[in-house]
Amino acid sequence: MHSPENRVEGPEPISTGIAGLDHILVGGLPSERLYLVEGTPGAGKTTLALNFLLAGRDRGESGLYITLSETSNELNAAAASHGWSLDGIDLFELVEQEDFGNDNEQTLLHPSEVELGETVRGIIAQVQEANPSRVVLDSLSELRLLAQNPLRYRRQILALKHFFAKRNCTVLILDDRTAEPGDLQLHSIAHGVISLEHSASDFGSERRRLRVIKLRGLKYRGGYHDFTIERGGLRIYPRLVASEHHREFDSAPISTGLAELDALLGNGLTPGTNTLLSGPAGVGKTTTAVRCLLSSLERGDKAAYYLFDERISTLLSRCAALGMDLSPYIESGQLDLRQIDPAELSPGEFAGAVQSAVEEDDARMVVIDSLNAYLHAMPSDNFLVLQMHELLSYLSQQGIVSLMILGQHGVTGELRSDVDISYLADTVMLLRFFEAKGTVRKSMAVIKTRTSDHERTIREFSIDRAGIRIGQPLTAFEQILSGNPRYANGSTPLLDDN
């Protein structure tokens, strides 16, 4: 990974235990500083904090978790749900259960005046005794309630900050955002601020995202980054920045496996370009993409296929019936065929999956089937275009052949798409139905190619048990681009139905 800018001289960065977060922070958190991790309950703050302490333990660093809200049993249970053991990490419950008895009630002084001072002194005493390298304080909402007013609250936090500054330890303070909206006191005190958000959509799973609001004196990757909570901790998908990824590749065109299709495209498919196959349902977009995919697999290349629309079993049986069996390539690991549920997938998670297939599995071809379903995983059309632009730019700089399928509404007449991304595509292929001699037939035409002088004709094609057959260029078409093409009797014969 390339960093957006070199780090300035300063404390050595330490790992948070989360690879994606370290990438966003350009190496990790500068050591011996105090950081604020804020988020509503359930956003993942405790999981992030445990990741942080466990990473320190693995490096031989001592860790201390001071909890004002949860019990040690609850923390151990949370760790066990991720398959972790907290052995070697000090857990300290600041308020023991017996402290809530009647004997401990204050009568002469306001309870908050005594309890706040006792709480802060308890934190300081525990840190002095354990002398940890990494500290987590969970959470500030209790201190805020005890302080009763912003001035006392800020003074106590400043006192804790100055105390920690002399201890040579890195501190995460968790906050569940119970303060008044717009209260940014802690933001100005902390060296860095990490904000976690989670929201529920009208349908599907909840979405989580993270943003680094502040990291004093250092460059980081800004903006929102999607993440999920899985067994083993947080998995963060840094926002894809195409300009940070580039590698040398051979740009010689590759064959689709069909000489007629190669001719239609100009000279086959060019690495580092993307092709959009657009047309109505049932016209043969997926079959054409699979034919190109199979040609790549037969050359020994690896590939990734992301299936949004139909079930994997349906696709495999349909392709096998057309003489394009993909099962051997899946079994050998050469083809990664994934069923994607757009209701359960965030855009960042999908981009992370594609990036992993390219950089870790060395896939040379990527197929997205289809963009219509992918659209429903996005908050809005604007985000779809921006995400797709960055993803396609990344694939281009990696030398990947990308195939995208876009279904259009309607069968004949005026066809409509959910979103127009044709301007992002390097090659656009139109697949259409047409009528001739009382029979419904299919045609394909390439209307745009940025890398070669493509054929500007229309060819009929058919799909049968032998796969795809493509005929000679037809010259007697009218109104093909209107979506309602008409074929008049010409000198070029149509494909034999037999």
From TrEMBL:
Enzyme class label? transferase
Query: Domain KaiC spans what residues?
Result: 12-250, 252-484
- The residues forming the signal peptide are none
Q: Does the keyword section mention Transferase?
A: yes
| Keywords linked to the UniProt accession | Hydrolase, Kinase, Phosphoprotein, Repeat, Transferase
**GO MF term list:** ATP binding; hydrolase activity; protein serine/threonine kinase activity
Q: Output the InterPro entries linked to this UniProt entry.
A: AAA+_ATPase (IPR003593), Circadian_clock_KaiC-rel (IPR051347), KaiC (IPR030665), KaiC-like_dom (IPR014774), KaiC_dom (IPR010624), P-loop_NTPase (IPR027417)
Under what name is this protein listed? non-specific serine/threonine protein kinase
